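In response to reviewer comment 3 from the previous cycle, which asked for concrete evidence that the modeling workflow produces usable outputs, we include below a single protein chain processed end to end. The sequence was submitted unchanged, and the resulting structure tokens are shown without manual editing.
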Amino acid sequence: MNSLKQSIGQLFKAGLILRALLATFVIAMPVAAQPLDALEKSCISATRDVATLFDSVNRCPEANAGVDLPIQLNQQVPLDASRTVDLDGQLLSFEWSLVRAPKGSAVAVDESSSVRSHFTPDLAGDYVFELQVTDSAGAVAKDRVTFSTNNVPPVAQTSKDLTVPVGQMVSLDAARSYDLDGDVLAYQWTLVEKPKNSSTRLSIFAFG
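The workflow returned the following structure tokens.
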């Protein structure tokens, strides 16, 4: 039994010596500064200490610049990175940059280092913004969002499905329809299905 305890003690000491040798080797070989691309792929900070090298690896933040949206000229548009997260719980810094805009545009990002910022489009076309997020260990993540002044289809909203008695007049209402570009809308109703032998027809009334 004593020999077994001695063997276990020797193995434990050997493990401590090996760990110390490895730590000495890491300290003797400083972590070189990495190019930005390599840093983004590895998500490992060049400023980590020896304990971090052994125990954990820093993970990239998850950058979220928001969803692509249609916009209108000369109206302020928000930039929102509040859905960005860091799985390690580290402090994050933000940087917004404009990477593409219509030729001749003078648009600039207001408060580019804030979680939330804004801009005002001055020319028709696409505006592409890049969000760069850096955690306190130096890991970087990026995301892009596109805003466009190009025309988009309107959103049609009709009345809810109803159960009505036979012979009763039913009103059709599309007043909740809207257009994201603010364009004037035209409406046309079509009866696409009805019971066999039904004589139902649409009656169009003008108001105003």
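The two ends are 103 Å apart (CA to CA). We consider this sufficient to address the reviewer's concern, and the full set will be provided in the supplementary archive.
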